[in-house]
């Protein structure tokens, strides 16, 4: 069987289990002629267990208008805000402190994010998560 030719790769972030044909899904997939409801049903079924968090998805669209998709881990800032118990990050990171996270929480987030980060080991992943926390105005204790 011949390989299908890739027409486009679309990346969007959608709340888990809550994809609808409305924007951002409809505006991202509509121009490529993909059956939007088919994607929404498949995405919602796959992410139902993670309902409430934002899950990035990478959709590969082929020339015959079929598609495949891969879900990623939630964005690091979302996980950090959840761990710190805050609704949004600092307006002036480095000057204002929005909250704090513990080293154990950083390690837990790094373990979750490790498959999607370009880190070699857990220590490198922890450093990346700590950097994101600092840029959000969070202190690591």
How would you describe this protein?
This protein is α+β, with helices and mostly antiparallel strands and 141 residues long. It is 36% helix and 21% strand. The protein contains five helices and five strands. It has a three-stranded antiparallel sheet. It has a two-stranded parallel sheet with strand order 4-5. It is elongated, with a radius of gyration of 18 Å.
What's the short version?
The chain has 141 residues and is an alpha+beta fold.
Q: How are the SSEs placed, and which strands pair?
A:
Blueprint: E1 6-15, H1 25-29, H2 36-47, E2 54-62, E3 67-71, H3 76-84, E4 99-101, H4 103-113, H5 122-135, E5 138-140
Parallel strand pairs: 4-5
Antiparallel strand pairs: 1-2, 2-3
Helix pairs in contact: 3-4, 4-5
Number of strands: 5
Unreliable segments (pLDDT under 50, ≥5 consecutive)?
none
Alpha-beta classification? alpha+beta
Query: How can the largest sheet be summarized?
Result: 3 strands, antiparallel
Task: State Rg.
Answer: 18 Å
Helix content: 25-40%
Query: Which percent range describes the beta-strand content?
Result: 15-25%
Descriptive labels:
single chain, 141 residues, alpha+beta, 3-stranded antiparallel sheet, two-stranded parallel ribbon, 5 helices, 36% helix
């Amino acid at each position: 069987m011949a390989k299908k030719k890739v027409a486009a790769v679309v990346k969007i972030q959608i709340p888990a289990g809550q994809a609808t044909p409305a924007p951002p899904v409809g505006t991202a997939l509509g121009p490529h002629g993909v059956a939007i409801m088919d994607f929404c049903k498949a995405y919602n079924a796959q992410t139902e267990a993670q309902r409430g968090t934002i899950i990035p998805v990478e959709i590969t669209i082929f020339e015959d208008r079929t598609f495949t998709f891969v879900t990623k881990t939630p964005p690091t800032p979302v996980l950090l805000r959840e761990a710190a118990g805050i609704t949004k990050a600092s307006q002036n990171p480095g000057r204002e402190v929005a909250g704090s996270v513990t080293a154990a929480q950083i390690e837990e987030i790094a373990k979750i994010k490790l498959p999607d980060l370009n880190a070699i080991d857990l220590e490198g992943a922890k450093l990346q998560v700590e950097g994101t926390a600092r840029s959000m105005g969070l202190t690591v204790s």
